[in-house]
Amino acid sequence: MGSKLANQASAIIHQMDQEELNDVVRAIKLRREYLARQATGTITVGDEVEFYSTKTGRVVGIAVKVNQKTVVVESGFRSWKVPGAMLTKTEAA
């Protein structure tokens, strides 16, 4: 956590009880869901996209199916179901 805002949030979180933490977790899930849907909304079938995999590194492929929060990306002989927030369009797209 490098940002000042993240450090402040972390300090506040350490002071919370269980119920307050549950409220924060729900808020974070809602925000992540919103960001994923927003990112997915910019991608259409046929777009060339990329993401980073911990095992294979940078993966470039074609979006073949766009769901509400995820995109199916084909890269070579492999298909990946990737959260929209992890994808970026490549320069060729």
TL;DR of this structure?
35% of the residues lie in helices and 32% in strands.
Keywords, please?
35% helix, alpha+beta, SH3 type barrels, five-stranded antiparallel β-sheet, elongated, 93 residues
Structure description:
This protein has one domain (1-93): SH3 type barrels. The mean pLDDT is 89. It is elongated. A hairpin with a 3-residue loop joins strand 1 and strand 2. The longest helix has 23 residues, at 18-40. The chain has helices at 4-13, 18-40, and strands at 48-53, 57-66, 70-75, 78-83, 88-89. The protein has 2 helices and 5 strands. The relative contact order is 0.16. It has 93 residues and is of the alpha+beta class. The protein starts with a helix and ends with a strand.
Count up the helices.
2
Low-confidence stretches: none
Biggest sheet, open or closed, and with what strands and sense? Answer: 5 strands, antiparallel
The general outline is elongated
Order of helices and strands: HHEEEEE
**How many structurally independent domains?**
1
Mean residue pLDDT:
89
Termini separation (Å)?
Answer: 32 Å
Task: Kindly identify the CATH topology.
Answer: SH3 type barrels
Helix percentage range: 25-40%
Strand arrangement within the widest β-sheet reads: 4-3-2-1-5
Q: So what's the CATH class?
A: Mainly Beta
Provide the β-strand percentage band: 25-35%
Q: Give the total of beta strands.
A: 5
Radius of gyration: 17 Å
CATH architecture: Roll
Break the fold down into its secondary structure elements and pairings.
Elements: H1 4-13, H2 18-40, E1 48-53, E2 57-66, E3 70-75, E4 78-83, E5 88-89
Antiparallel strand pairs: 1-2, 1-5, 2-3, 3-4
